[in-house]
């Protein structure tokens, strides 16, 4: 399964205690063609990342000649990949491949005189189907087999298929293709951060485990033991993808930073890109422990 990935990985603000994709700051003295130093590169040298991870280069100051800088950035993979540049700031450029990277492969990167490399792990692709109330995981194109025992609930125990609950009508989970931005073992989610009082009918203050972040505003795939009776049946969340504790733990331990998460309405549609910034959906901030 392949698709165009259009998500900014480097422009998010996440506390330092969160497990995120690595950023290499060891090459700060390297110069690019205009003489500007390179402050950091992501992924870092020898990092193993997900198959949707972009390449992000941060320079020490504003880049005056963007075209020359883009021409100086060379990415080598097998097979060769095409992609597009996005300037996230006047000193930050991102290169996004037009298809997912090949799984379990090495990628070489050079910017001017700086050379580095990183690798991809298995292609762990998660597909959330909001109408079917499922979250299907494939690894290198094969449905995952390490799943709970069969259960009387819909889809429980089918290879690769996790019964799930997505955003209810008032807080829909936005359709699109995303990348895993961070993994947070334990977080506290507070509805008051988006203007919903904790003591209101829609409010909550929850300890959440096995949270895999896929938007900068705070949408996650996470454990939701309070929603067990809704998994596979109905969408009751505030936009996150809710799983059973066992399924969430397995996914948390399996997925890499940079692996794709695809949200679609049914079993046929496969969105090719993320819509305008997360459809404007507001979700709670996350308070790391």
TrEMBL record:
<dbReference type="InterPro" id="IPR038063">
    <property type="entry name" value="Transpep_catalytic_dom"/>
</dbReference>
<feature type="active site" description="Proton donor/acceptor">
    <location>
        <position position="222"/>
    </location>
</feature>
<keyword id="KW-0012">Acyltransferase</keyword>
<keyword id="KW-0449">Lipoprotein</keyword>
<dbReference type="GO" id="GO:0071555">
    <property type="term" value="P:cell wall organization"/>
</dbReference>
<dbReference type="InterPro" id="IPR041280">
    <property type="entry name" value="Big_10"/>
</dbReference>
<dbReference type="GO" id="GO:0005576">
    <property type="term" value="C:extracellular region"/>
</dbReference>
<protein>
    <submittedName>
        <fullName>Lipoprotein-anchoring transpeptidase ErfK/SrfK</fullName>
    </submittedName>
</protein>
<dbReference type="GO" id="GO:0071972">
    <property type="term" value="F:peptidoglycan L,D-transpeptidase activity"/>
</dbReference>
<dbReference type="InterPro" id="IPR050979">
    <property type="entry name" value="LD-transpeptidase"/>
</dbReference>
<keyword id="KW-0133">Cell shape</keyword>
<keyword id="KW-0961">Cell wall biogenesis/degradation</keyword>
<dbReference type="GO" id="GO:0008360">
    <property type="term" value="P:regulation of cell shape"/>
</dbReference>
<feature type="domain" description="L,D-TPase catalytic">
    <location>
        <begin position="135"/>
        <end position="264"/>
    </location>
</feature>
<dbReference type="Pfam" id="PF17964">
    <property type="entry name" value="Big_10"/>
</dbReference>
<dbReference type="InterPro" id="IPR005490">
    <property type="entry name" value="LD_TPept_cat_dom"/>
</dbReference>
<keyword id="KW-0808">Transferase</keyword>
<dbReference type="GO" id="GO:0016746">
    <property type="term" value="F:acyltransferase activity"/>
</dbReference>
<feature type="active site" description="Nucleophile">
    <location>
        <position position="240"/>
    </location>
</feature>
<keyword id="KW-0573">Peptidoglycan synthesis</keyword>
<comment type="pathway">
    <text>Cell wall biogenesis; peptidoglycan biosynthesis.</text>
</comment>
<dbReference type="GO" id="GO:0018104">
    <property type="term" value="P:peptidoglycan-protein cross-linking"/>
</dbReference>
<dbReference type="Pfam" id="PF03734">
    <property type="entry name" value="YkuD"/>
</dbReference>
């Amino acid at each position: 399964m392949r698709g165009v990935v259009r998500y900014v990985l480097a422009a998010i603000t996440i506390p330092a205690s969160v497990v995120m994709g690595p950023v290499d700051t060891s090459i700060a003295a390297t110069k690019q063609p205009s003489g500007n130093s390179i402050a950091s590169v992501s992924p870092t040298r020898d990092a193993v990342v997900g198959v949707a991870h972009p390449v992000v280069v941060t320079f020490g100051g504003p880049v005056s000649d963007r075209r020359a800088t883009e021409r100086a950035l060379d990415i080598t993979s097998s097979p060769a990949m095409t992609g597009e540049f996005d300037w996230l700031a006047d000193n930050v450029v991102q290169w996004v491949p037009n298809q997912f990277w090949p799984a379990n492969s090495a990628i070489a990167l050079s910017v001017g005189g700086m050379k580095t490399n990183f690798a991809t792990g298995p292609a762990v692709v998660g597909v959330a189907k909001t109408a079917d109330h499922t979250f299907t995981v494939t690894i290198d194109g094969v449905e995952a087999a390490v799943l709970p025992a069969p259960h009387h609930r819909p889809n429980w125990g089918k290879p690769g298929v996790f019964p799930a609950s997505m955003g209810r009508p008032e807080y829909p989970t936005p359709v699109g293709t995303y990348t895993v931005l961070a993994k947070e073992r334990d977080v506290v989610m507070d509805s008051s951060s988006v203007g919903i009082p904790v003591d209101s009918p829609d409010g909550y203050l929850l300890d959440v485990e096995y949270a895999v972040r896929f938007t900068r505003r705070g949408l996650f795939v996470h454990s939701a033991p309070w929603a067990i009776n809704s998994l596979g049946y109905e969408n009751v969340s505030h936009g996150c993808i809710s799983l059973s504790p066992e399924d969430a733990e397995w996914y948390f331990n399996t997925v890499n930073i940079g692996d794709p998460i695809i949200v679609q309405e049914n079993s046929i549609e496969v969105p090719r890109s993320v819509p305008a910034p997360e459809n404007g959906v507001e979700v709670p901030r996350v308070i790391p422990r």
